[in-house]
Amino acid sequence: MMISEAMNTKLNEQIAAELSAAHAYLAMACSFESKGLKILAQWFLNQHCEEREHAMKIVKYVQDVGAVVVLGGVPAPQGDFADAEEMVVAAHESECKITSMINDLVSLAEKEKDYATRSFLNYFVDEQVEEVASMTDLLDLVRLAGDNILQVESRIRHQMISKT
Ligand SMILES: [Fe+2]
Ligand SMILES: [Fe+2]
User: Fold this and answer.
1) What value does the mean pLDDT take over residues 64-73?
2) Which ligand is nearest to the CA of 47?
3) pLDDT at 80
4) How many domains does the chain fold into?
5) Which pTM was predicted?
């Protein structure tokens, strides 16, 4: 095994955190879908898929370094948000929490002179900048739109089209 027991445990915790985020974003996508907000539903479904990819990247890395994948529990996501703003605030908080978990992993890798894991984590360091930025943008949009959530939908739809 090329990584320490402590690092193995922390990476397994990160897999569970990414899968929990995926689960929470799927719940948010379903909530938007049920309100007829299909663009926001699609946006959160895309986030769901990204979080699953993050989890799978770590699964593969843990296996590549000869360590053992142990899956933790994925809690039932919160379902009773008052409005879109409250939901996006929770998503933003989740991204900030994940960012600090990634930073803790980087600190551990550096402390242990585990340069392979340190290098592997660079992708996640960069990715979290993007993730927090896009969730901050969404939160700004939702707050600007106020009661007119359809404006958020049309803005996001334009962004999605220009990306493809
Ligand atoms: Fe993630
Ligand atoms: Fe994320």
Assistant:
1) 98
2) 2
3) 84
4) 1
5) 0.96
